[in-house]
Amino acid sequence: MTDVLIIGAGPAGLAAAIYVQRAGKKALLLEEYSYGGQIINTPEIENYPGIAKISGFDFATNLYQQAINLGAELVFEKAVEIEDKNDKKIVKGSQGNLYEAKAVIIATGAKNRHLGINKEEELIGRGISYCATCDGAFFKGKDVAVNGGGNTALSDALFLSDYCNKVYLIHRRDEFRGEAGNLEALRKKDNVEFILNSSVSSLLGEEKLEGLELTHKLTGEKRQIKVSGLFVAIGQEPANEDFKNVTDLDKAGYIFAGEDMRTKTAGIFTAGDCRTKEVRQLTTAASDGAVAALMACEYCNKNA
Ligand code: NAP
Fold first, then answer.
1. How far is the CA of 274 from the centre of ligand 1 (A)?
2. What is the pLDDT confidence band of residue 124, given thresholds at 50, 70 and 90?
3. I need a surface site. Which of 60, 76, 131, 269 has the fewest CB within 10 A?
4. What is the pLDDT of residues 83-98, one digit of tens each?
5. What pTM value is reported for the model?
6. Are the C-beta atoms of residues 13 and 28 closer than 8 Å to each other?
């Protein structure tokens, strides 16, 4: 039996693990893929207080090392079910293992949203990517497109513009959600073309991506552009369906929780991008993790 089982080893989960260990309790992290969550794919982080500039990979690795050095344990297995037995929680893993904990923190983050258009799934790895840092190098000297208007799209387009021949930035509106600083930097690039009020309506090419058909949102006009890569950066969606027996989910699938990170089940907390909140940032994920950890430790003490 562990004290606090944390589902997800992204910034929220790892921050929680650090706080649990420093509170003298035992943290066990369950992670499906790799530590670090989405931030591991961010080329540069420049808005984390106290760190002027760091790559997402280095940030995630530092966070992971800090948690492990403090004694947290990480197991690679997807959590697929939580059973509430009042005095203890039983978490079932995808490989059939059962984990017992006094308290649980759900910090599953969110997954990349797909466009949901024809051939998208078939062309993943053959021109379609959801991660510029991971796959950008394959497109050196080529023409590529980035779809989206948030910080991910802007930083991906900036990153790609350094070594791709041309970068089209396609966005469905004419205003961006992403930071003005990134937008300004992009506007100064000679090889970046903005295509606004437009959506990707078709993917061209059979064996690999060869181009895109774009539809203008206001006029309905269609045009085609030739690209060998499309980086889809249209936001994330939560993946909390497995935990809806012990939590309440909003319409979009986020776990209802306030600033105390409590879910509807005593002893089950949540943290980071997977919960209902206004601002999803690295700083707010880390903050959620700290709060959830302290609340979970308090719960463990009261129910010892
Ligand atoms: P986001 O902020 O949710 O932006 C998603 C973008 O995709 C929006 O511009 C949205 O358009 C567009 N979009 C959504 N669904 C679409 C669809 N079906 N078709 C076409 N376009 C669609 O997502 P994000 O950029 O991944 O960022 C997520 C969070 O992480 C944000 O809080 C962001 O600030 C943060 N982040 C931070 C950093 C950093 O701090 N360094 C880096 C990356 C991300 P509309 O604007 O029209 O809704």
1. 15
2. very high
3. 76
4. 999 889 999 999 999 9
5. 0.80
6. no
